[in-house]
Amino acid sequence: MSDDAVDRAQRALEEGISRDFGAAMSYADYLDLDTLLSAQHPRSSPPQHDELLFIVQHQVAELWLKLLLHELRSARSLLAADELAPALKRLARVKHVQRQLVEMWDVLATLTPSEYAQIRPFLATSSGFQSHQYRAVEFLLGNKNAEMVRVFEHDAAARDDLGALLAEPTLYDEFLRLLARRGYPVPAEVLERDVTLPYRLVPALVEVVAAVYAAPAEHWGVYETCEELVDVEDLFQQWRFRHLQVVTRTIGHKAGTGGSSGVDFLRRALDLTFFPELYEVRSRVG
What we know:
Structural class: mainly alpha
Radius of gyration: 23 Å
Number of helices: 15
Strand content: under 5%
Order of helices and strands: HHHHHHHHHHHHHHH
Largest sheet: none
């Protein structure tokens, strides 16, 4: 091969590229890759090839959930501070994270029933049902459930985090409080509700939202936020549906490892809604 062909087949390192990391921070140092990449501990015996897929899938999901919580908490704080524009920026990122979580199910769907059966016994009673970060996302969006806090009595940090979120306003609560501060006639029962309970439809609030949808140009920021919230719920429901479908194709109607009824339990979640007025208003438009 000629020298010219070699030059075209490889990219020479530039002189300025760092090479000595004896004292300088490296990529692996910054990301703590030694810890991250050594956190996978397959338990199957004899070892099963597909267990690493199952572990990595769920660990990556937990990392995305960590970022999702970071962005949702920030969006909630910005709404509480009447900073609508940056809150919308946070929600835009939330939606991109949600899409990653939805699309991840396609990878796990490559695990056939026979392959999963080889590793399922080694999961014991562990289950995604026990993901405290997933529950934290639900609490932030409005699906409060005090019983879920008790599931984490074994983990003081998770229990306390969920307990705090249970007592705090949701993302939707802060949006509705912002509307009230801007002069929208948000019903007192909404502003004074017990935030430890799951949010429930308030018919009088539908009328407030209907007025926004009747004249979008006059209420653009609020209108845009309503649609962003609908996008967030839509993507959350897509996640729930893909979860249901993957579980159905993998274990059928078997009970879940954590003791739930499995697909029947997951299917009931599809009936839950975070922002009911934003869906109810659609029957009023036009």
